């Protein structure tokens, strides 16, 4: 039997119906080529196969990048062994993210209590991009040293699983996000436990559903959500 590949299922010798994954550099280049017609908010959550990114790219390409050992190890070195992926965003030019940092916006929309985390950036236009990370409290323009201001930049946002991701729309970070980034709703974003254990009773169920999902709308009973969370923590 042939091994299961990342580009499709083992179909007992038959040709897979799933297309091969694009390299992240090519996937990013295709988005950058359309940058004039895409609002920045739509490039948030690019790794989420259940979000609006499906209309722009293959989100699995970016999810695989977020789940890569280099990204996880960079996060563990900074925030410890328990790591949750909650957001990622592509900036078509690194200088756009530099402005975002200079405006003090990184961390402003993080609905995590206590507020802690790590920002990992990858100049994703390169075939083998370096992985650069820093703690949220230390993030600043120096993070982008050595990166061409005009090259695309992929920003991965991770938090320690000792913090709680607050899905309440009234949380100050969520309110600020809805007022200033009107196309983004972090309250219904899925969370990926990349390493270790969820130690803050996070909702690891919401968001893992197709568009207009029942779970993300909050219609799933609380006791059913807790059952699903228990299964995902095993």
Low-confidence stretches: 1-13, 212-220
Q: Quickly count the helices.
A: 6
Number of domains: 1
Trace the largest sheet across and list its strands: 4-3-5-1-7
What's the order of the H and E elements? HHHEHEEEEEHEH
Radius of gyration, whole Å? 18 Å
Termini Cα gap: 30 Å
The portion of residues assigned to helices is 10-25%
- For the secondary structure, the number of strands is 7
Strand count, sense and barrel status of the largest sheet are: 5 strands, antiparallel
| Mean pLDDT level | 87
Helix and strand content put the structural class at: alpha+beta
**What is the strand content?**
5-15%
Using the alpha-carbon principal axes, give the shape.
globular
Protein described:
This protein has 234 residues and is α+β, with helices and mostly antiparallel strands. It has one domain. It is built from six helices and seven strands. The strands form two sheets. A five-stranded antiparallel beta sheet has the order 4-3-5-1-7. The chain starts with 23 loop residues before the first helix and ends with a helix. 35% of the residues are buried. The N terminus is likely disordered.
